[in-house]
Design goal:
Helix content: 25-40%
Number of domains: 2
CATH topology of the largest domain: D-Maltodextrin-Binding Protein, domain 2
Largest sheet: 11 strands, mixed
Order of helices and strands: HEEEHEHEEEEHEHEHEEHHE
CATH architecture of the largest domain: 3-Layer(aba) Sandwich
CATH class of the largest domain: Alpha Beta
Distance between the termini: 28 Å
Length: 240
C-alpha cells in the first residue's frame, strides 16, 4: 500500500467494510463463521486481499444506517447504492452492479406503465432511505410516498393499507408478486440503482484505489464471477 492509503485507513492493519444487510441480492446468506456472505461481502474481501490487509465486515440493518455511520467513522469503505444525496458525505467508486427499480401494482389496478404511477391520489409504499426512495423523493411530483422500515415493512404497508403501488427493486418485486395473486410488476424502470463502494471524501488515495479496483473488477470478470457464484444471475447486472 502507498503511505497515503495506510494513513487514510488508520494504520490499523484491518479494513472495516460497511455492509448493507437489507439487500438480499448483495447479501445472500452467512458463512459458517457467521459472517455476511454474498456479492458485496466478497467484493469487500477482494478489496482487502488486493491491499494485503485483514478484513472486518461491519453489518448495518439498512442503507440509511450505513450512510449515517460515515460521520461516526464506523467504516473505511462501504457498499451501498450511489445516490446524489449520499455523495454529499461519501465519495463513491463507479458502480460495480446495477439493479432496475420499478413498481408492483395490486390485482385490478389499471396502471399500465411506470409513468402512470405519478398521479394525484396515488399512494406509493417504499422502503425508507433506500436508494430508490431517495431518487423518488427528488422526482415524484404528484403521487404520495409512504415510507416504512425495510423491504418487509414496505410490503406490509402496501398490502395492509391497500396502496396503489409498491416501489422496489425488480427481483424483490417479482418475488412479492408471487405472494399476491393478480399483482403485476410493471415493465420498464423509473431508475437503475447503481451499487458502488464508498469511502470518506477526504480519503483521496482510497477513492482512487477503489475507482481502479472496480473498473478492473468489471473488466477482468471478477464481478460477473461473484454474481454467478452467489446465484443472482439475471437479478444483478454488471454495471456498464
Amino acid at each position: 500500500m502507498s503511505q497515503e492509503l495506510i494513513s487514510e485507513l488508520g494504520e490499523s492493519g484491518t479494513l472495516r467494510a460497511g455492509i448493507n444487510m437489507s439487500n438480499p441480492l448483495l447479501v445472500t446468506g452467512s458463512t459458517e463463521a457467521g459472517e455476511p456472505d454474498g456479492v458485496a461481502p466478497d467484493m469487500a474481501r477482494a478489496v482487502a486481499e488486493q491491499l494485503g490487509i485483514a478484513i472486518r465486515r461491519v453489518p448495518f440493518a439498512s442503507p440509511g444506517e450505513v450512510a449515517d455511520a460515515v460521520s461516526a467513522n464506523a467504516w473505511d469503505i462501504a457498499f451501498i447504492g450511489a445516490e446524489p444525496s449520499r455523495a454529499k458525505t461519501i465519495a463513491f467508486s463507479p458502480a460495480y452492479v446495477e439493479i432496475e427499480a420499478t413498481y408492483l401494482v395490486p390485482a385490478g389496478s389499471t396502471v399500465a406503465s411506470v409513468a402512470e404511477v405519478d398521479r394525484p391520489g396515488v399512494r406509493i409504499a417504499v422502503s425508507e432511505r433506500s436508494a430508490y426512495d431517495l431518487y423518488l423523493a427528488r422526482t415524484i411530483k404528484h403521487a404520495e410516498l409512504c415510507r416504512a422500515k425495510g423491504l418487509a415493512g414496505a410490503f406490509d404497508l402496501f398490502v395492509g393499507e391497500k396502496m396503489d403501488a409498491l416501489a422496489g427493486l425488480r427481483p424483490a418485486l417479482n418475488a412479492n408478486a408471487d405472494d399476491l395473486p393478480g399483482a403485476r410488476v410493471l415493465d420498464g424502470a423509473y431508475t437503475t440503482v447503481q451499487q458502488a463502494i464508498g469511502t470518506k471524501p477526504e480519503n483521496i488515495a482510497t477513492a482512487e484505489f477503489l475507482r481502479l479496483f472496480v473498473s478492473e473488477g468489471k473488466e477482468s470478470g471478477l464481478v460477473a464471477r461473484l454474481i454467478a457464484r452467489h446465484g443472482v444471475e439475471g437479478k444483478l447486472q454488471v454495471a456498464g
